[in-house]
Amino acid sequence: MIRLMGIDPGLRFMGWGIVDVEGNRLRHVADGVLATQSGDDVPRRLCDLHEGLMKLIRQYGPTEAAVEETYVNRNGSSTLKLGYARGVALLVPALAGLSVHEYGAMAVKRSVVGTGAATKEQVTMMVRRLLPGAEVKRADASDALAIAICHAHHRASAQHVATGVRMA
């Protein structure tokens, strides 16, 4: 069994999800959102995200992490701030000794729903279907679980390729 952590970066809300993988079976462990105060300055918010992720890693003990890649939007300032949060999301698991993997939003949607054009509602519905018992309360947490599921699928495929297993 391996424990994966999915992270959906955000400066205001950073989604996280923990999934256990055994063979081709997925099991929901936990999920949630790290929230920062929008009135705080950016360095304080980044510290809060860092501390929250460190606490989650100590609590749940994942062995690998997956982080969603940042998309660029029209507001350069917002993109830059999202980049700061993404930096924390990449750095914290790496500092904890986890291998960290990155996936684009379309790859995540294709892995979970089957199409890169899936809506947030479709992703949440499929996450709940793939992880029975997951009571996802926020889209950020659903996205984080979807990232973990995506990594589980890519990880399994990479292992099959590495061992020379042919898939039907």
Automatic annotation (TrEMBL):
Primary role: The RuvA-RuvB-RuvC complex processes Holliday junction (HJ) DNA during genetic recombination and DNA repair. Endonuclease that resolves HJ intermediates. Cleaves cruciform DNA by making single-stranded nicks across the HJ at symmetrical positions within the homologous arms, yielding a 5'-phosphate and a 3'-hydroxyl group; requires a central core of homology in the junction. The consensus cleavage sequence is 5'-(A/T)TT(C/G)-3'. Cleavage occurs on the 3'-side of the TT dinucleotide at the point of strand exchange.
Residues reported to bind Mg(2+) 2: 68
Keywords, ordered alphabetically: Cytoplasm, DNA damage, DNA recombination, DNA repair, DNA-binding, Endonuclease, Hydrolase, Magnesium, Metal-binding, Nuclease
Active site as annotated: 8, 68, 140
Catalysed transformations (reactions): Endonucleolytic cleavage at a junction such as a reciprocal single-stranded crossover between two homologous DNA duplexes (Holliday junction)
Main subcellular localisation: cytoplasm
Cofactor note: Binds 2 Mg(2+) ion per subunit.
Compartments where located: Cytoplasm
InterPro entries: RNaseH-like_sf, RNaseH_sf, X-over_junc_endoDNase_Mg_BS, X-over_junc_endoDNase_RuvC
Highest classification ranks of the organism: Bacteria, Pseudomonadati, Pseudomonadota, Alphaproteobacteria, Acetobacterales
Binding site for Mg(2+) 1: 8, 140
Family named by the database record: Belongs to the RuvC family.
Family matches, as Pfam families: RuvC
Protein name: Crossover junction endodeoxyribonuclease RuvC
Annotated PROSITE patterns: RUVC
Subunit: Homodimer which binds Holliday junction (HJ) DNA. The HJ becomes 2-fold symmetrical on binding to RuvC with unstacked arms; it has a different conformation from HJ DNA in complex with RuvA. In the full resolvosome a probable DNA-RuvA(4)-RuvB(12)-RuvC(2) complex forms which resolves the HJ.
Record field: transmembrane: none
Organism of derivation: Bombella pluederhausensis
CC cofactor: Mg(2+)
